[in-house]
Amino acid sequence: MAPKDPLLGTLKVCVLNLQSDGEMVTDTNPHLASCCELLELVLRKGLQQPVISLVHRDYWQCFEQLTHQDPCGRLSALSLAVEQTRVCRKLLSAQGRGRYLLRLALSRKALPQFITHLLHTPRVLEWYSPTTSILRNEEFVEPFMSLLLVLSHMEFKLNMENCSFLDESWLLPVCETYEVVPCREVGMALRYLSGRVFVLNLKPGSQAYVDKFICPGDIIDEINGTSLRNSKNGQARVVLSRLRGCPLSISVLRWRAQDGTVYRPLIKLLRALRVENPTLQLGPAPSQQTATKDQTSSQSQCLKEGRIVYIVQFLGKTNIGMLGDKEVLQQAIPQVLQKNLPSKEVLLDMKETHLTCTDRSSKLVRRHMSCLCYCLTKVSSTLSLWFPRSCLSITIQRFHVSGDTGNQTTPYLHSVWQTPQKPLTRLASAVWRSEPAPSRSVRR
Q: Which residue windows are coiled coil (predicted)?
């Protein structure tokens, strides 16, 4: 009777559970963390430590060493994955880099290929014990590779940007993106603790306070692609100062996990924050608006010539002059609404280079050329499209707008009016109204 390894038996059960959950495996899958942890245990089993070295050897060093043993460049896929892992600033330890590499290999269906390279590189394989490791046991390697082949036929859609906690845990926090229009200040009081940037409270009346997206206890992970992992005191303020007047994309890690409980790796840190700030009130659980969005999007959208366009009510227009800050909307919107003109139902089509506004008979009502940007902001009960500097601003009453750019859905596009020689000196502000729809939220 062939010997069995308990790790492989448990891994097989976990792989079957992943298969039974559906075709697509995402970060929310309850079996993903267990599967990754078992793969990690297999790669660590029998891994021998060097006799004379102060560095603890982990499986990350094995894959990293493989690229040095490839002078002919045969391992291009592995080399690219290792390099992407090495330059990720959110990873501080060999454990975090190894876990990131495993997730990357699953996403790219390349894990069997990586392990095969390891098995065919004697100089690295000899780091494993021939008596205790799975990788140097011929009877165990075959079933292990079979399980990896099964995983390679599954679709993994993993958020590789959500990796700041891989150094500590396979359990990942809820990661969402907060899109902020250009403003003088976001209005967040921050606390730097253990290399994390926590939100302590929100300034009343500020942009963050009005949007109610970020909550006390949440973590600012990155701002416009700049990672704040292991950042020093004041670094977030420096980044925000450098980006003042620009649209912001803030990656937020929630203090609550997917199941609504406190995210376990944060328990000790949140306790420390409570000790320092006894009045700290953790924010509510992030709202789950995906289902609502699906139900209401069809009420305010329709198909026109194969494109999704928005059904809105055109309420009027007013001049806003040369100013482009979002504060202009505070005056422009009431000016349009006070005219109390009859509304007109139109179809708003937002393309990459321009906006078109037509009626039901396809008669062109307005057309706006775009070349830079417009952003969403919240003004009272409205969501407003904001155009920087001598631009057109459009307000959509209780209306959710999102654009699909590449693999990421973002709730803002880019547009500004200008002539070949100079910007237009006077432009108009149009106001639109639509059916109620969910507030902005982009989950990563």
A: none
